[in-house]
Amino acid sequence: MSYRVSSMSVLPPVRKDRIIAELPKCYSKEAALHTKDEFTKKVRTACQEQRTGTVGFKISKVIVVGDLAVGKTCLINRFCKDAFDKNYKATIGVDFEMERFEVLGVPFSLQLWDTAGQERFKCIASTYYRGAQTVIIVFDVNDVASLSHAKQWLVDAMKENDPTNIQIFLVGTKKDLSSPAQYALIEKDAIKVSQEIKAEYWALSSLTGENVKEFFFRVATLAFEANLIAELEKSGTRQIGDIVKINSNSNNLYAASKKKQPNCCQ
User: Fold this and answer.
1) pLDDT per residue over 74-120, tens digit each?
2) Which of 116, 149, 170, 197 is the most buried (most CB within 10 A)?
3) By the 8 A CB rule, do 64 and 138 touch?
4) Rounded-to-integer distance, Cα 145 and Cα 153, Å
5) Can you tell me whether residue 245 is helix, strand or coil?
6) Residue 82 and residue 208: Cα distance in Å, rounded?
7) Longest C-alpha distance within the chain, in Å?
């Protein structure tokens, strides 16, 4: 198991290419957490008036899960380091990267946890799921089996988290290896799975970089928006009904798993 922890007590400045001024678009309106084109008026006004509370100091935890060799590490490295390493090494346990953004003028941080996909490391990795605000389930668009395992990965992640307070993304990688006809077939299945688990669907390529930056900007923005709305709720400045609601289906998946799930560490 490896992880990097900064010795700095102060968060680093935001890079110029991590500044977000507009709400990033979803990949598919058929499977999106919400389809609006702009930030809500209350969120934008709060940022303009600098009424964002502690949001600018928060670090939102994101866990990246999925089968072995679907491209979880390559996805994170492409965004964080703009690099693609063909010499694949399986992640042992967990690893993480910190990324800083500026959303509507407010600093915001994501902690991206890269977890092992190998069965023997599942128990180690699952101990780091707790406290996540975002779950990214990764599958290979050229491997139908990896898509079929998405629901179980979600069940595992939800054991350590509150299903009502989490955002879910289903991400298909290695799009560059799939022909348009092949991809069209799996996209239908992927969107269906996304709708069932109430996840936002994306397809991308870590090799070419297609949709990688756009995807992580979307993740950062929706996490920022959820945190700010929660902050406004605390101060009593928002009205009921403005928050993005994450489905209850995750609760059902979790409840079902409790009945049949053995202790994986036994």
Assistant:
1) 999 999 999 987 766 666 557 889 999 999 999 999 999 998 756 65
2) 170
3) yes
4) 13
5) coil
6) 10
7) 53
Cα(117)–Cα(121) distance, integer angstroms:
7
Is the CB of residue 124 less than 8 Å from the CB of residue 116? yes
How confident is the model over 217-241, as pLDDT tens digits?
999 999 999 999 999 998 774 444 4
Determine the 3-state secondary structure of 227 from DSSP: helix
Q: What pLDDT, on a 0 to 100 scale, did the predictor assign at position 216?
A: 98
CA–CA dist 257, 79 (Å, integer): 33
Burial environment of residue 122 by CB neighbours within 10 A (0 to 12, 13 to 18, 19 or more): middle
**DSSP reduced 3-state for 216:** helix
The answer for residues whose C-beta is within 8 angstroms of residue 35's C-beta and 6 or more apart is 26, 29
Strand order in the sheet with 19-20: 19-20, 94-103, 106-115, 59-66, 134-140, 167-173, 200-203
Cα separation, 202 vs 257, in Å, equals: 26
Distance from C-alpha of 167 to C-alpha of 70, rounded to nearest angstrom? 21
List, for residues 33-44, the tens digit of each pLDDT value: 989 999 999 999
CA triplet 103, 112, 167: central angle to 5 degrees?
Answer: 70
The tens digit of pLDDT for each residue in 244-253 reads: 444 445 555 5
Rounded distance, CA 198 to CA 245, Å? 10
What is the full DSSP assignment across 101-158?
Answer: EEETTEEEEEEEEEE--SGGGHHHHHTT-TT-SEEEEEEETT-HHHHHTHHHHHHHHH
